[in-house]
């Protein structure tokens, strides 16, 4: 058999999949304080993230939060329900007015923020009651507990996709920071020794692309154990 398939190599370690955790900033969560505020002392780049981070000086020491559009060094960030509706302030969804843009929303109260963390994204508070309804970036309406916290504003760095990489090396380093592979060659473009779909006068599979669930690892590519489509 030829080389290992990319799908088989994935997850086995190696430089192409190893995340450079020594360069990553600490885990970003809402600070675990009820009522606290502090100034922004710096805006930093975070390898492995699509958005910049804001370094905030809090009474217990410095902490990092996702930077929101409009935040600048010297602004105060308030953690708690006494804050105003300003970019970066964190408060419960029950206290955020309808129509406000939010990000880094907690899925469960106290988990530190799980949703809407990508650069340029935001959700919109639609209604409040026993549950708070938030319009997600995908267009779906999602319900949250009123005690779930969220940060006000849009995640910074939304224009990152407008500038082209320019050369392959920049793409390589950008994806390496996120522990992702750079190039991904399709199976039909390979030689027969490298992939079951390889070979032929032109790029085509050349045989049924369905494989049995009991097929050996080197043959298990394509549509795995497909089932008959249900008829309405």
Give a verbal description of the structure.
- By secondary structure, the chain is mainly beta.
- The chain has a domain of 132 residues: SH3 type barrels (Roll).
- Helices cover 6% and strands 22% of the residues.
- The protein is built from two helices and twelve strands; from the N terminus they run H-E-E-E-E-E-E-E-E-E-E-H-E-E.
- A hairpin with a 4-residue loop joins strand 7 and strand 8.
- It starts with 5 loop residues before the first helix and ends in an 8-residue tail after the last strand.
- The mean pLDDT is 87.
Looking at this protein, list some descriptive labels.
4-stranded antiparallel β-sheet, 12 strands, mainly beta, single chain, 6-stranded antiparallel β-sheet, 232 residues, SH3 type barrels
């Amino acid at each position: 058999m030829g080389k290992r398939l990319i799908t088989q190599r994935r997850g086995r370690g190696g430089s192409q999949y190893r995340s450079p955790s020594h360069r990553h900033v600490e885990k970003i969560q809402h600070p675990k304080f009820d009522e606290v505020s502090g100034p922004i002392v710096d805006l930093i780049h975070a390898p492995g993230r699509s958005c910049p981070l804001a370094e905030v000086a809090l009474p217990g020491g410095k902490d990092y939060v996702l930077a929101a559009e409009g935040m600048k060094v010297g602004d105060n960030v308030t953690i708690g329900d006494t804050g105003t509706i300003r970019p970066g302030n964190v408060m419960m969804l029950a206290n955020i007015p309808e129509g406000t843009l939010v990000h880094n929303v907690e899925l469960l109260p106290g988990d530190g923020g799980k949703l809407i963390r990508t650069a340029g994204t935001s959700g919109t508070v639609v209604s409040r009651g026993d549950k708070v309804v938030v319009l997600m970036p995908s267009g779906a309406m999602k319900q949250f507990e009123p005690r779930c916290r969220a940060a006000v504003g849009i995640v910074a760095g939304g224009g990152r996709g407008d500038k082209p990489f320019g050369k392959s090396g920049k793409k390589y380093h950008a994806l390496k920071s996120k522990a992702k592979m750079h190039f991904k060659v399709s199976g039909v473009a390979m030689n027969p020794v490298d992939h079951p779909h390889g070979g032929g006068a032109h790029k085509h599979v050349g045989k049924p692309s369905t494989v049995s669930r009991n097929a050996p690892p080197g043959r298990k590519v394509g549509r795995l154990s497909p089932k008959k489509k249900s008829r309405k």
